[in-house]
Specification:
Number of domains: 1
Helix content: 40-55%
Number of strands: 2
Strand order of the largest sheet: 1-2
Oligomer: single chain
Mean pLDDT: 80
Largest sheet: 2 strands, antiparallel
């Protein structure tokens, strides 16, 4: 776990203060979209139709905006759900930041 977490921190944050290169926003988005494409490909191969993917808030914002710039997410609430539909080789952002399932 520590090795993965350290690799994640290096990859996403880049620890620029230490002189290590950080990913650009485009590189992050390209990596996230490529990952989503790979998840879809594997799911289709297995006949899966519903998929849950968990992201960090900053990554969610970048990915949702890249898939649909009109979604314009600026803040993602903790434990919120954003729904993306993949149909006919196209991603559509169906909802952003839904917390309606949380009981007060």
């Amino acid at each position: 776990m520590k090795k993965w977490l350290f690799g994640f921190v290096l990859g996403v944050v880049g620890l620029g203060l230490m002189g290590w290169p950080a990913e650009s926003s485009k590189e992050v988005v390209d990596r996230l979209v490529a990952g989503a494409d790979e998840i879809i490909k594997e799911a289709q191969k297995n006949g899966d139709t519903d998929i849950l993917v968990v992201f960090h808030g900053n990554s969610i914002i970048k990915l949702l905006y890249a898939l649909d710039s009109t979604s314009n997410p600026t803040m993602i609430e903790n434990a919120s759900i954003s729904k993306v539909v993949y149909k006919d080789r196209k991603y559509t952002v169906a909802s952003v930041n839904d917390t309606s399932y949380i009981k007060e």
